[in-house]
Amino acid sequence: MLDVIKPGLHTTVQDLGRDGFYHLGVPPGGAADKYSFQIGNFLVGNPAHYAGLEIRMLGPTLLFTKRTLIAITGAPTPCFINDEPVPMWQCLEIKAGDVLSFRFAQQGICTYVCISGGIHSPEFLGSQSTYIVHQKPECGYKLEIGGKLMINEPLPGAFKHAGRFLPESFRPSFSKTAELHATLGLAIHRISDEGVRVFLDSEWIVSTESDRIAYRLSGGPISFEHTVQTTETDDYSANVVDLPYPVGVITVPNPKELIILVSDATAGGGFVTIGAVISSDLDTLNQCRPQTTVHFSAVTMEQALRLRAEKKQRLASAAEYLTT
């Protein structure tokens, strides 16, 4: 059992999400930075999909009522057991009565706490991931002060993993700038050639209005192809006939703003779309803080698939390192 002394800024139960229902309007959800999350599970000897905690910016204070193992991964964050600093990216033994606490993340957004055996909470559509928008108890759990969270028993033989760590070479980097690859398309015919050039050559700044649903970025201006005037002052239209959105889609609601839909996003809409951030870069996007400077570069579908394969191989190599 975990007793929640302080819930932190926004701490939720997450796993790898509920794939397969997006076409019905159910977003995939799951850990925003899936690479860091899966590494956390590997460190404590769990399968990659076991549910853990996603912390955004400021972590909780938790009292453990039984012995177990944890790993803390993701955004660099000062973390403590019984007020003593402990390292991230390492398997740590927890004793009954220990208190885990955090300070504000120094970089990035999402930090993960994975626990041997995982978290015991209800599943909805095959996932324990929390979908805050739904506000139903069957859709996960957001930590609240005074709350209690069931954790499963450590897996057999798990305590032999105590002390193992992930080398720096396998850890993601965190920066005030981000380079994101995007495949162009969807409704790009509504963007002028000059608008596409500005999209790729400009600096885009992450807004404070960014969360697990969408990231807003300011920059531009992106010029549209001339269309029917929609207002007395605007000579563009950012609207198209509603279309399905992939996760990572980059919409252009107005010339000076992009909205990129992420884990908990809506499944469709009627804004002009210029392309989509490739899946292997979504972890990087989801770790971008407000005021992060973002540059986009265009890739072909073949290049996107190659980058995805390279990231999968990196994760597999990290898992192999931790299990040998």
Automatic annotation (TrEMBL):
Please give the SUPFAM superfamilies that the UniProt record associates with this protein: Cyclophilin-like
- Which residues does the UniProt record annotate as the domain Carboxyltransferase? 23-315
Report keywords, A-Z. Answer: ATP-binding, Hydrolase, Nucleotide-binding
Which one of the record's GO molecular function terms can you name? ATP binding
Return the InterPro entries for the record: CT_A_B, Cyclophilin-like_dom_sf, PxpC
The answer to whether UniProt assigns keyword Nucleotide-binding to this entry is yes
This protein is called Biotin-dependent carboxylase uncharacterized domain-containing protein
